[in-house]
Amino acid sequence: MLRARGTARAKDPKKAMKRVLRIVFGERKLKFAFIVVCILISSFSIVYSSNFLGTFIDTCVFPIIGVENPDWTPVAAALMQFAAIVSFSVVFNYLLSRTMVSISQDTLYSIRVEMFRKLESLPISYFDRNQHGTIMSRFSNDTDTLNQFISNSLVQLMQAGITIVMVVVSMVMNSWFLTIVVAVFAFITMRSSSFIAKRSGRQFAAQQADLASVNGFIEEMMNGQRVIKVFCHENKSRSDFAVLNEKLRKSMTRGNAYANVMGPVTMNIGNLQYVALVVIGAIAVILSGGATSGYTIGLLAAFLQLSRSFSNNVNQISQQMNMVLLALAGAERIFELLDEESEKDDGYVMLVNAKTDENGNVVETEEHTGFWAWKHPHHDGSPVTYTPLRGDIVMKDVDFGYVPDKTVLHDISLYAKPGQKIAFVGSTGAGKTTITNLLNRFYDIQDGKIRFDGININKIKKADLRHSLGMILQDTNLFTGTIKENIKFGKLDASDEEVIAAAKLANAHDFIMMMPDGYDTMLTNNGESLSQGQRQLLSIARAAIADPPVLVMDEATSSIDTHTEALVQSGMDRLMANRTVFVIAHRLSTVRNSNAIMVLDHGRIIERGDHETLIAQHGVYYQLYTGAVELE
User: Fold this and answer.
1) Distance of CA 54 to CAs 380, 435, 521, Å?
2) Which of 252, 282, 43, 62 has the alpha carbon at shortest distance from 165?
3) How big is the CA angle at 559 (ends 553 and 565), to the nearest 5 degrees?
4) Pairwise CA distance, residues 399 & 409, whole Å
């Protein structure tokens, strides 16, 4: 079974945070400025409310205590002023929340777009190395945690930080002595939070990696349900899942154990601080003469409110640190994907629409002529040349390995003239599919040359090269959509008439018309409602509508019965007419009419020739064809 690699950790939280903030606010400076204004107003209202209590007690309440006919006008005026400030703050808090929701969704939208764009630009080797479920986890779990951070934690941290600054300034102005008491308890709180956060951060990073492993395993098991049931491996699958799930349970338990203890610790430190301020403040009020000088009841009441605001916001930061650490662990995994090196393409030769002018020269044209040519600029300043697209392919002395120190193809040389059919036969692992993967530059060779119409394929832009190649694989991939849309995948701007013509060429038209909605029949789950043969016919139609000069058929009929194979083979024969074709087949009867047959063994061509020549040699091909040796 596949497993996710290792346990990821947040390597550089500061760098990740800077990058997140740059993404969130880099292109939203006006919204960021508005958020800061809203937070300043909200924080000001908190400080104002606390100081209002002290002023209200000292200037409005004490003067009317014991008075026979008190004047309530100052009290009413103060309360109206307080209500206006609070109402103003409520409005800006609402605007703050709405703006942050907008920013968070815009940010997540752009991140998902960038992730998908990056995914589409990555080389095939990336998907060879990484489990699909692990990749999906970055789009789901990691983006969810990042969303929670941006929409909730980020604004709360900003608000708490600004409020703390304003509260500290106000506390110092009221009483520097009591502020020192608060600072002592704040230091204790910060040390405690830091101790807990370091440990919870490691576990949250492990949690994200373990969650990706579980998701990847589940996806793998869902895709392989038929195989699991055929071999009665349900118990084995459950036990493997239990191991991964137990690892996730442990990392989540440890992470949340630290996270859950942080709140009570900081809250109780805050309570101790409150008690200490009450005792010390009461003594100071008594020693200073009560409400007449120095420390007053109102000042103490205001300071206690300020200290409570200070503690609450410190606790808020402590609580949010868990979400921050979890989000940064997820953000780093997202950035790892975004920082993956995209598939390199140094090609400069392009495939263009062409026509022949009155002098017989090939020239470029904007109209679609059905005639293609390679547009070849020259670095030496020579005029641009146009080479007609014919499908002439030459491989000379090609060596290749998926990793540098392990060569899997050795000294491969062959040629295919336009309209020829070249077949590859050999046991599994001989290198047949690897050769076809080199033709479309899914991988680049280590040594040798591959030329397409006389042009080194390294000089051809990859998209243009692949546009000139059609592939029909053993494992057909059909996408969620109509049959028509799946056929048009080979040519997105194809007309309905072209779709029908391609389906008829592939022998798919008859079965399509028997479907409930014909060409508009919806396909889901990789076309599970179709037989393997029907799915293969659709893949032939998809290749046919692209009308490529070169076709690669990788064991396209190996997984279907002989009756269906005849139908599929008939469609392929029509498609192969006048095209250069590379065929990989286990059934040697399908390659008898090939112009050349290459017999491979351990990455080397050990025999070559047409069917009659190889049979006459009584070599490996003869043994394979007569059944003396079976393909594995």
Assistant:
1) 84, 83, 74
2) 43
3) 75
4) 5
CA distance 308 to 275: 11
SS3 assignment, position 167 = helix
The residue written with tokens 């009317």 in the block is: 64
In terms of residues, how long is the chain? 632
pLDDT (average), residues 327-335? 87
SS3 label, residue 349: strand
φ and ψ at 270, to 5 degrees? -60, -40
**Residue 103 corresponds to which tokens in the numbers above?**
């920013």
**pLDDT, tens only, 458-473:** 999 998 998 888 888 7
| Predicted local distance difference test score (pLDDT) of residue 359 | 83
In tens, the pLDDT along 396-418 reads 999 999 887 888 999 999 998 88
Confidence check: pLDDT of 198 > 70:
no
pLDDT at 184 over 80: yes
SS3 of 480, please? coil
Q: Residue 147 contacts by C-beta under 8 Å, 6 or more apart in sequence? A: 104, 108
- From the candidate CATH numbers 3.40.30.10, 1.20.1560.10, 3.20.20.60, 3.40.80.10, the one assigned to the domain spanning 13-338: 1.20.1560.10
- The phi, psi pair for 167, rounded to 5°, reads -65, -45
- CATH homologous superfamily, domain 393-626: P-loop containing nucleotide triphosphate hydrolases (3.40.50.300)
Q: Where in the chain is the domain with CATH 1.20.1560.10?
A: 13-338
Decide if 387 contacts 497 (C-beta within 8 A): no
One-letter amino acid for residue 464 of the chain: D
Question: 328: helix, coil or strand?
Answer: helix
b/e string for 459-497 if b means 16 or more Cβ within 10 A? bbbbebbbbbbbbbbbebebeeebbbbbbbbbbeebeee
- The amino acid at residue 63 is P
Report CA-CA distances (Å) from 425 to 36, 206, 394. Answer: 68, 46, 19
What is the rounded CA–CA span in Å between residue 145 and residue 131?
21
Percent over 90 (pLDDT), the chain: 11
Number of other CB atoms surrounding residue 43 within 10 Å: 23
* Opening angle at CA 256, ends 254 and 261, nearest 5: 100
Q: β-pairing, 447-452 with 455-456?
A: antiparallel
What are the start and end residues of each CATH 3.40.50.300 domain in the chain?
Answer: 393-626
